[in-house]
Amino acid sequence: MADSARVLFVHNALTEFVRLDLDELRKRFHVTERFENSRVVNPIALWRQVRDHDLVFGWFASWHTFLPVEFARRLSKPSVLVVGGYDVANLPEIDYGHQRGGVKKTLSSREMHLATRLLATSDYSRQEVARNVGLTNGRAQSLYLGVPDKFGQLPHSRRERMALSVGNVNRSNLTRKGHEPFVRAAAALPDVSFVLVGSWHDDAIDFLRSIASPNVSFTGRIDDSDLLDYYRRASVYVQPSLHEGFGLSVAEAMLGGCIPVTTVAGSLPEVTGEYGVKIASPEPEQIADAVRIALERHEDERAAIRNHILDNFSVAKRSQEMVQVIESLLNGR
After folding, report:
1. How far is it, in rounded angstroms, from Cα 166 to Cα 198?
2. Distance from CA of residue 105 to its chain's centroid?
3. pLDDT, tens digit, for every residue of 39-57?
4. What angle is formed at CA 210 by the lines to CA 207 and CA 213, rounded to 5 degrees?
5. Secondary structure letter of residue 24 according to DSSP
6. Is 233 helix (H, G, I), strand (E, B) or coil?
7. Tell me: the pLDDT tens digits for 86-119?
8. Among the residues of the chain, which ranges form H helices?
9. How far apart, in whole angstroms, are the C-alpha atoms of residue 173 and residue 170?
């Protein structure tokens, strides 16, 4: 049955990690993509669409996947939800996460309880499911994201004294991704270039510019080839987050040979393993000290850092395990 199985793939943004899953599942199943960016849907048409598929596969437990999972349960169809991030988080101190309470918590929690299987993007996210949603019956399992190798080999170009960080520039990420302390840390290292790559979504960029020292630059949105060039040139990659469901940019930078400087928040210790420099909290002084240490690391460490990502977070490994989960559900196991 699996070869001819029809999978309804539901998402609300075709980010790279979502697209990778979609592409991989299309190699094995007949997949219909449902992009849902509105809370107003035609329930009759959606019911028919779920009815005409063998399984629902959704990215994140939120408004866009609620009805597909609800209808799948009512139609006795299996459903798989990938979770990890805002849907399972409960961080009222930074105003982040559906599990803080209210309608979003009620909706996403019910959805996760209804889904046949949850694929958490990290062990940390799986623990959040247990802690914040109360699902401890084994239906949630960890499955790391796959990180495509866009370099092919360790870049051998000369590294610059550059500390790089990547993420959308908005008010939330000033604290959640640590953009503010990253920018403030630059003042303590005037001979190091601090670069923040990411789209500007609100007035957060004006605030960051107002506190930036002369050695800080903001690129705005750049294309993939330019981002890879930054990964090749930067000596250090900095991710001073307060929460991470996985940390894809960290893994990408490590594939490019950057020495990671991260907090121990969320899944970051899982992604970095024994490598890089870890800080207890995202304070500018700690970030600056960690960047200083990372800049002194031996060049041979970059190859080991790259191999760590290749060995643990391959696209092929994630694809194989996803297919195994789906086939087991289609076969009634």
Report:
1. 6
2. 20
3. 889 999 999 999 999 999 9
4. 125
5. H
6. helix
7. 999 999 999 999 999 999 999 999 999 999 999 9
8. 16-26, 43-51, 63-74, 102-114, 123-128, 171-175, 179-185, 204-211, 224-233, 248-255, 268-272, 284-295, 301-312, 315-330
9. 5
pLDDT of residue 140: 95
User: Which residue matches tokens 């609100």?
Assistant: 202
CA torsion angle 77 60 264 279 (round to 10): 160
Query: Six-digit token pair at 209?
Result: 């510019």
Tokens 């990215």 correspond to what residue? 59
Strands 117-120 and 79-83: parallel
**What is 2-146+314-330's CATH topology?**
Rossmann fold (3.40.50)
| Residue keyed to tokens 């991030």 | 85
List the 117-120 sheet strands across, edge first: 30-35, 6-11, 55-59, 79-83, 117-120, 140-142
Report residue 32 CA to chain centroid gap. 23
In contact, 196 and 183? CB cutoff 8 Å: yes
List the structure tokens of 222: 């750049």
CA distance 228 to 197: 11
pLDDT confidence of 2, banded at 50, 70, 90? low
CA atoms of 255 and 212, how far apart (whole Å): 29
Please report which helix (H) or strand (E) contains residue 220, including its range.
Answer: strand 216-220
CATH topology of domain 160-312: Rossmann fold (3.40.50)
Task: Map residue 195 onto helix, strand or coil.
Answer: strand
Q: What's the token pair of residue 313?
A: 């977070």
CATH 3.40.50.2000 location in the chain = 2-146+314-330, 160-312
Structure tokens at 333: 């196991």
Model pLDDT, residue 106: 96
Q: Which amino acid is present at 5?
A: A
Structure confidence at residue 322 (pLDDT)? 97
Q: What are the angstrom distances between the C-alpha of 230 and each of 161, 166, 196, 252, 256?
A: 12, 10, 10, 11, 9
Q: What are phi and psi of 305, to 5 degrees?
A: -65, -45
